[in-house]
Amino acid sequence: MRTGQQPAPVLVAVDGSGRSAGAVRYAVREARLRGSTVRLVHVAPTTLPEGGLWPSVGREVEDLRSSGEMVLDRAVSRTSSAAPDVEVDSLLCRGPRVGELVRASATGALLVLGRETRHGLERLVAGATTAGVVARAGVPVLVVRPDWREDDATGLVVGVRSYPGDSELLAHAYAAAAVRHATLRLVQVADVGDLAPDAVEGADVDTAVAAGNRMLREAVRDWSAAFPEIPVQSTVVPGKPADALVEAAAEAELLLVARPHRDLRHPVRLGRTLRTVVRTSGTPVEVVPLSRDPAPAPSSSSARATS
What we know:
alpha/beta, Rossmann fold, single chain, 307 residues, Rossmann-like_a/b/a_fold, UspA, Universal_stress_UspA, Nucleotide-binding universal stress UspA family protein
């Protein structure tokens, strides 16, 4: 049982391929920020897929577990050598990848996944794994490019769809900005769908932009009172949500978006906007799962006590 003295670990999925490299580097950075450990997670299947989808060392089904152990041993060795200041452990799971990664994620505070770069059927299968995990995990899931390295990108972009509906997302974003000493940019997209370019400036879009600006001002008022040290910008942009968010975050170090609470209106699958953002963003994307009830904005005294 966790005592509260040691933060929950940052989990990162490794599969023995180069796809995991950026994810491991990001997990190490995040663990340093949080003062936590890194846990490398590998899922060994119970049967051997065909078509080169599994980067195992042995080709016999009975060797899959030992192959998984080898993948983890190598990953732990490389990670510990590159980051001797961070404690690293590992977890070997067996079974369907989506279900096992979701189950493992419950032991951590964040799950980091490398974005798929393969093509054809392999991309389809691995991409479905990423979308399935993001859709089902009960903790935030971060998807990052395989070649990610820490650079000079600064600032966090937060895609806000509604307020106070996205209060949990804002709580997460303000806390992340506080530990990074970063600027927050709240972005609300006035969805123009498939409108023609000459219709984007119409009255309906202007009305949506004005409503979005009022919503963001309310959110900034409530949350900045609790986090006055964090510089915050807000903007409403007309466009298609996925494209607009990816463009808004192009120079940022992190894009944060919310996953709706799962109910009859939001079944266990990832919506088109989130799926597109996760697949196309060059900036790391953190997807924060929302619960049924919005989190209230904290008072300034409670925020100082918990930061």
